[in-house]
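Entry 12.
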Amino acid sequence: MSIEENKAIVRRFRDECWLAGRLEVADEILAETVSRNGQALGREGMKGFIAMVRAALPDYHSETEALLAEGDQVAWQYTSRGTHTGAPFFGVAPTGQVLTIAGTAIVRLAGGRIVDIQDRADLLPVYQQLGLVTPSDPSDQRPRRR
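Predicted 3D structure (tokens):
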């Protein structure tokens, strides 16, 4: 497949699966054995992951900052947001907080389907927004004794 065709598949994955929640589209564009971050989730596992995020953040939306491709890979830089009013997220009951998740995914395709996703999301701000981690006090930068 061409670079432009691969980018179109990733756009469709974003638009239809992530943004519109049309998980049946995943059957057309994800390989049955798709992996994410080295885990063999399979198509059903990936659909479950998307459903979990969308259940926690019912108003989920995402902006694509960049979509670059070379060979069989597409780099997708994104910023996603959603209000945590749905299901628990990272084990935390709904907080009402707007969560912002920024990241970059390297998506590998074969035969017109996504076969691997290496997603590197910056989760520290999300943990802070959920109250799981408190920001450090910048004035508390004294050296630590060993």
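Annotation: The domain at 3-130 is CATH 3.10.450.50 (Nuclear Transport Factor 2; Chain: A,). The first helix runs from residue 3 to 19.
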